[in-house]
Amino acid sequence: MTKDVAILRSADEPRELIDTAVEFAASERAADQAVLLGFLNSSEFLLRVNTAHEYATARPKQLRVAKVIRVLRDSPYPAAKATLIRLAEGGDFVRTNWLCQELLVRALVSIRPAPPEAVRYWDQQSTPTAVNRHVTIEMLCENETDPALALLEQKLLDPAQEREFKVAWIRDPMLRHRNDEPLLRASERMITHSLPPDLRLVLLEALCTYDRGWYPGCAPPKPPPRALASAEARQVLRRICRYALEHLELSASLEAAVRATLVEIGDDDARA
Amino acid sequence: MAVTRIKITFASVGVLDSADIWGDGDWVFKATIDGKAVGDPKIEWTAKERGTIELPELEWSSVIDVSGKTKATDSIKVTFSGTDIDVFSDDDLGEVKYEFKYPFDKDKTVTLKSPVIKGWLFLPDHQYYTLQLKLEVLEAAKSATTGAAGPQTVSVSRQHSGSSTFTTVSGKQILPRVEVCPVVPSPQAPSKMPKRPDIATANGLMPGKDTPQSQAVAMWPVPDLNATYNPSLIPILAKTDPDLAKKAAKLAVTYVEPGDLDTSFLTWHVKSGPIEILGSNQGPEIQAIGTGAGAFDTIGEIEVRWDGAKGPLLATYRVWVGKIKTVLYRINLINGTNAASSVTLSPQDYENQIKIARVLFWQAGLHLVADTNTTVWDGATTTDSSGTALPSGVFIVPVTNNTWTVNVNNFVPTIASRLNFRPGVLHAVYVRSTASGRAAATDIQGVDGKPYRMGGQPTASWVIPSGVPPEAKPHGTLLLKTFPDSDRPSKNAPGDDDYVKARQAADATFKKSDMARIYAAVLPSDWSSSGTDPNAGTNLAHELGHVLGLQHRGSGDANNPPLSEDDINCADVKGKKRGHPWHENVMTYGYGGNTANVPRNLDIDIIQTPVIRKHPACT
Questions:
Q1: Taking the model in full, what pTM does it have?
Q2: Is A98 helix (H, G, I), strand (E, B) or coil?
Q3: Out of A51, A222, B252, B522, which residue is the most buried by the measure of CB atoms under 10 Å away?
């Protein structure tokens, strides 16, 4: 497939359009990316790629344009990442509906550290009235850079966010990353300083133990094997556990879980 | 009888959710059979999320002369691998290997899952596809070593009067193998089935055969209520029921050896229990009903013998007998403020999904019936926007807050499941989408969470040791782990307390404790893009099975531990303990056995049946 702007301008065949758009998305040249950005932010172009009915009824990743966004996500070139950032700043692409918005929420994960534009976009996409809120929180945990985790902390502190969902985020996407040093460092800050007392205990519990009963559904998230945690991650978790034992009012079961975690990560001094 | 020619076919490739395809994927495949390449590795196939790639049989199969493969150690190795052609780097989809072993004497279909490809750095793990692989026996010749003579079809029909054996023309005595497997479709590898004695090969007879009734029944178009053979319960029905033939249990032989056994000589006899066979008791398939008042469910036994009640015993089938219990349902379609925030298929399409679930639950004596009470709450309607009446039991619930229907987090109690709910009724709640893309049972209530024990033989789903001769008797009892109560009153969805007050204002009879009688699964309306996808119906049945208390059986998902979450496990074909059956139970997790139109996850077994029948929604 050739990188021919005329095809993007006038072709009607969706496959041809997408294959051409993919060529532009794969380019390292800023000029090519600028061309692509123009088309992605054109509702006329988007409607040649997928029908209005498809934009209303598909799953986001089933949209043809998703392939272009994925190439931008996977591209090693700064120019491609810049296109994602520009899309996040507004335009027809994100105005189309929540499906395209979700694609962008997911694709921005690939930019590390998360730039302010991405954080701003994720912030908009995770307000209490935003339909992509839960997906966004998951992506913040996937990105795991400081700006993303700062936004996650902000969401956990936001009184407008329902407590039930905060607990769910702690016990799902955060739990799935509980071996990771960046998330543990953010958790340390939240447990020692920022979170209200009840959520500190919920977070501590999610870092130290696991209860199938937390999840009503049939496909519960599962924590990674602790053995895979790096030495640096263990060090942070060790500090969290010691802080909890010294400063937090723990139930007997949670205290036992914290001590067991310390033993698990190689801190025999923690035995009661 | 030695097999001389077989055909091996790569039939289809199913694209898994975890393939994480964005747009259309371009996949290429490489395959070998017995060391020779088959198929064109340059052809690019369009892979769509949750789609199926049908491979043309002509190019993707090979006929093999196996006349020279006569040793027990002989085998035919098959390999299949794929690549996702990508812009920056092609993705390895993983390689699947399989070995067909001598004597290649039975048609066989196996579904294999590709390996989990580990991610690195920030990339997640992926499992991309399932492969359906078929072996067909094309030609068999008389064995030179057994010395059998005479027409094979006659030889096994000669029975000694009063004896339990049959004599072949060559003078050898055999006892034919007849199976009435309680799991239909009959389990495929990796599930291990009871050991079969070698009858055919040792005596120069026709290789054993799975019967047509052992295969998966197509769920679309929606079949009769009694479509699934060998149910776990024979329903008590009036013989005057005008639809008796479509409701009575169908029992059938699932495997015979020798393959040309004259099954018209098979006779079926009630050994115990209030069971009546309808019409003829002869042949490979019969119909039966339960009799009596059915104050409580009882276990019955049916025997299959050769040519009359005094003939040799060939198989025993164990089954519950009980009355049909009614399960009222509501399908609530939660529509947001615009087209992109509304359910994606028509109300009739969702009704069709529950019609498929209705067929699957009928085998356990449960009849899903549209809620006869049409009282609505929360602005729900029984007509669509044009004023046309919705199918019975289907309601549209308009909401002004799109977060209640788009990308719903259904791993926690949901707002959607309380909308237009009627206490005590089973609810299938379709939202526009869920954050995970998956369906989930969100409100599992009215269950006691206690394990259910069951002894006796044959065991449920023929868990090894099954007690099916010549296999050993079961060790003790099986223990089925069930779901605990999800306890909505103490594990709220946001706003539940305010909802209770508002509901009480609208309905003085409503009590706070009624929140403990929400029985619901929340499903993404876009789970399937087709209104005729039978997998959407089996998916709904799976979630409703959870709502009624059942945990996962078998799994079939390599991302999960290999054991059933309900603790029903046994050795697989490699001797490794794993969930049983792997793919064929309604509660399997991975849907790995599915092909485009014929799901395999269709069975509910005798240890699951009493658990779901005691749920308060079943009356």
A1: 0.93
A2: helix
A3: B522
